[in-house]
Specification:
single chain; 17 helices
Length: 384
């Protein structure tokens, strides 16, 4: 029986790299199309859609719920970048900041759901659940600390605007780049087809938004699958090899893995079975999840490359807000043992409650991702 062709094997890496590049281009086309679609919807429609996000608590809720629905903060933040940078600026930068914070909370739901798979084996669940929940709690603590600070001082916005101006001055960012031209050219036939199909500009805009959302979601999903097949086993070896290493190295591992797979959910979900197997303690998992928070900001920065025009800088600014939010959270919480112990001890306490009843476990998950938004809505109505 003949063996595999010696010619076919060397071309596999080339094909995979080409696939990744093609999916990345499709992702950027989706981001570009999103802004163009909202431009066609018209100012009146946009005012109705985004008026509610003027309230920061509503913006936070939108970020949480949107991310729990699509199971990816990368999709949410990429769409936010596209909206902020779109012509006529349908989503102001100030309104988008709480949405970014909400996306950081919503992205933790995946690992929490993964940990529920161990509920039938008490010992495994006792080790796996705190590994997942510490990420939830860390991101919640970060939002509780930084959202009031942002509302009072505008720290994240000011820092992002300043850095964006420096980057423009130093590197001369050209938003009418060849990449942007290629993206625009790709959208031309789609735009022409929609003009032929729909007479109304509003219908064309709605169709554009739906196509953009489908492109962003599908390309990121496929990109994650391709990258996971390439690095999954290597990622497991990498994580287990640094279990006893420094926190800084663990954070870097979280960053690198998330950049490779373009999904913080995959990184944090990978930690859950390692925790269940007793290979990873919650103290060791926390710095890796912090690194995953930072690594996932690369997607928003990539999305900022897809936009052009006078408002393109706003896309870069909100992407920088995402990065600064996670960097600030890391520097504010992790170096101080007292602060670091807050999510760690809370994770262990919640695990002891969850072990008493499966209903308590499910109640925790529902309350964390859906009960808190409902409570914020109630508070908003009471104090309005």
């Amino acid at each position: 029986m003949a063996g595999p062709s010696p010619i076919a094997v060397p071309y596999r890496p080339v094909a995979r790299v080409f696939t990744v590049l093609l999916l990345l281009f499709g992702f950027l086309v989706g981001v570009k199309a999103l802004g163009q679609g909202f431009e066609q919807l018209g100012d009146g429609t946009l005012d109705v859609i985004f008026a509610a996000t003027q309230n920061p608590f509503i913006g936070l809720i939108v970020g949480i719920l949107a991310t729990t629905v699509v199971q990816s903060s990368s999709v949410t933040t990429a769409m936010i970048v596209g909206l902020v940078a779109a012509p006529e600026s349908p989503l102001p930068l100030a309104n988008a900041v709480p949405m970014i914070m909400g996306a950081n909370i919503g992205t933790t739901v995946t690992a929490t759901f993964v940990s529920l798979a161990h509920m039938g084996r008490r010992d495994e669940f006792e080790r796996a659940f705190p590994v997942a929940v510490c990420h939830d709690l860390f991101n919640y603590v970060t939002v509780l600390a930084l959202l009031p600070l942002e509302l009072m001082t505008g720290y994240l916005q000011l820092a992002a605007v300043t850095i964006a101006e420096i980057l423009q001055d130093v590197s001369g960012f050209d938003y009418d780049s060849p990449l942007s031209g290629a993206l625009t050219a790709t959208l031309v036939p789609i735009e022409q087809f929609l003009e032929w199909l729909f007479g109304s500009p509003v219908l064309q805009g709605m169709a554009f938004v739906l196509i953009a959302a489908a492109l962003i979601f599908s390309t990121l999903f496929l990109l994650v699958q391709v990258m996971r097949s390439l690095v999954h086993t290597r990622v497991e070896r990498l994580v287990t090899n640094v279990l006893g290493s420094s926190a800084i190295l663990s954070i870097l591992v979280g960053v690198v893995i998330t950049v490779m797979v373009q999904s913080s959910s995959i990184t944090t979900s990978l930690l859950v079975p390692l925790g269940a197997a007793g290979l990873l303690r919650v103290e060791q998992a926390l710095p890796v999840t912090i690194g995953a928070n930072i690594g996932t900001t690369v997607t928003a920065l990539l999305a900022a490359l897809a936009v052009s025009g006078p408002n393109a800088v706003f896309g870069l600014e909100i992407a920088l807000v995402h990065l600064l939010f996670n960097l600030t959270g890391m520097l504010l919480i992790y170096p101080l043992r007292t602060m670091r112990n807050v999510p760690l001890r809370a994770a262990r306490f919640i695990t002891t409650l969850a072990l008493r009843s499966r209903r308590l476990t499910l109640l925790w998950v529902v309350a964390l991702f859906y009960g808190v938004p409902a409570l914020l809505l109630l508070m908003d109505r009471l104090f309005r």
